[in-house]
TrEMBL record, chain A:
Domain of life where this protein originates: Eukaryota
UniProt feature, compositional bias: Basic and acidic residues: 31-43
Region (Disordered), start-end ranges: 31-53
Designated name of the protein: F-box domain-containing protein
Chain intervals with Basic residues compositional bias: 44-53
One Pfam family in the UniProt entry: F-box
Domain F-box: 77-105
Organism (species): Ramazzottius varieornatus
TrEMBL record, chain B:
Pfam families: Skp1, Skp1_POZ
Coiled-coil intervals, chain numbering: none
Chain positions covered by the region annotation Disordered: 167-191
Protein origin, superkingdom: Eukaryota
Family: Belongs to the SKP1 family.
Gene label: RvY_11636
Record protein name field: Skp1-related protein
Family annotation (SUPFAM superfamilies): POZ domain, Skp1 dimerisation domain-like
Amino acid sequence: MSLQWRSFPGIPAFFDEDDPLFQQLLKEAETRLPPEATSEPKAKKLKKSQPRRKKKDEPLFSLYTLDELWRKSSILLIKNILSYLDLRNSCKLSRVSTSWKKILEKTVILNRGVVFLDWRIPAAGQRRMDAALSGSSSWLKLFKPINFQGIKHFVCLGPALNFAIFEEYEKLFGFQQSLSKVTFCSDTFTDAKLLEIASFLLTEFEQVTFVNCRITTNDPEFHFDKQFRSAVWVDYQGNHPRSIKWDLEVVIPRLVFDENFNKLRGEEEQQAWLYNRYDEMDLIFPYGKEQMDWLDHALDCLSGGQIDAVKHADKKFLEWRPDYYKSKMRNSGVRTEATTAPRDLDMLDLAFLGRLLVKMNKAKKIRGLRPPPEPFPDDFNVRIDF
Amino acid sequence: MSTAASSSTSETIAEPGLKIKVSTKEGEVFELDEKVAKMSQVIRGILEDLGEQNGGDDSVLPLTQVETRIFRKILVWLKYHAGHDKEEAPKAEEDEIIARFCEEIPEWDQKFLNVDQAVILEIMLAADYLDIKKLRGLCCKTVANILKTKTVEQIREMYGIENDFTPEEEEEIRKQTAWCEDEPPRQGSNH
């Protein structure tokens, strides 16, 4: 018997060469390798199997220099490029040359009366900007190279405009009579703040629009605090008191506040209006029929204490939702008896109950409950307070 | 309509339908699907002027300002967008301005334009010549995004722009805009 050392993928390094199994494996391995394969067959094989690079995949290089190409660019093209700059960058680059300054001074005209302020800048730049804007400095002075004649629409991008005090908004927007519209883009708000800003700005302007903004709704704030010890929930969730809170989060593609919003009376009406808009945009329950069917089935899976727990949560949820909220929501066509009173569920009910059941299932398995076709956002929080 | 140069290479698109032949500056001939070709407003205009009688014969539309290597690149963009873009309802001018500023450049286009800045400028010039509004806009926005990362001095050097301010003028404007200067960009930037 002799031991041989051969290196083949899938075969132990040492083997009895008279062993029939070894002979078989060796034969198979040799047929897998090219004839010239030696101790490093993998690398060689990989190298051989590399596809030849096609001509069109090769990186494309210019035959011209940047300044040659820039000289070739028409004034219209250069204006087009510079029209993509926001106020801060327009101010900064107006120092390049007198011709750039002349173009950039007319940023407002270039963009048909729309000006942009991009707050998505590095932290150091943000600090300088904040410092420059603090105190009594007027915004108009900051953007001095820009001619604001004819400004109609101010667009703010990014997350830095959640001013705590409205004085800052006055500084920013209060400099031109012609300004009639303000838009916030890619910002993050609570819905209370959203309504507050819209209400405030609509006293001066015709329209306030929010585009691609993330809104967290503190109402519907469904909240068992730790003093609230329902026997049902303590039994269902264990012996620890918990707080349960739901903050619905939506991303609005575009939401316009105009004079019609100003006709609404009081915060509750405004809040209901907001929910109605979310519902119209399919943001509250943005799923198809499969998800509704899942919820219908999930409610049928409940038994005993689980039904009690859902009824109890639903009761609390309804206590928070006055009738006008309910009347603003679309009906989903799903009917269940696993709630406080048998009823047709509206879209907000679906969003709430769907998340509740997923959370309950995590705490204690609901028999027969499958995961929903589409996962719900994780905005339903259960906190354990020891 | 002029005739194609004798040395020609055809790039045929698989879809059936009317084919449009165009030739580049070097005389290379490309055969495009009608839908792809008409994304260029210049080609669309010529075809409309000619009453769209060009499909069945050997006539070729000359694109004398577009070099073959850039046209090949643009063709990739045209084919992709002809197949993927949905019909969009026309927007009001103001909404269009806001959308082009606020919307991020889609991932595919970002990858497409992840090339040397000079190539972006060449594509932009060609898109301008061919009047492909969307591609021109993407290039302009990409160049603007590059400008945002540069200092004034770097921009002057990059494009060979002369500083024609008097020292007094420059000092004044520097004071006005000092607050919006960025940190110097990191070395080794691709653009």
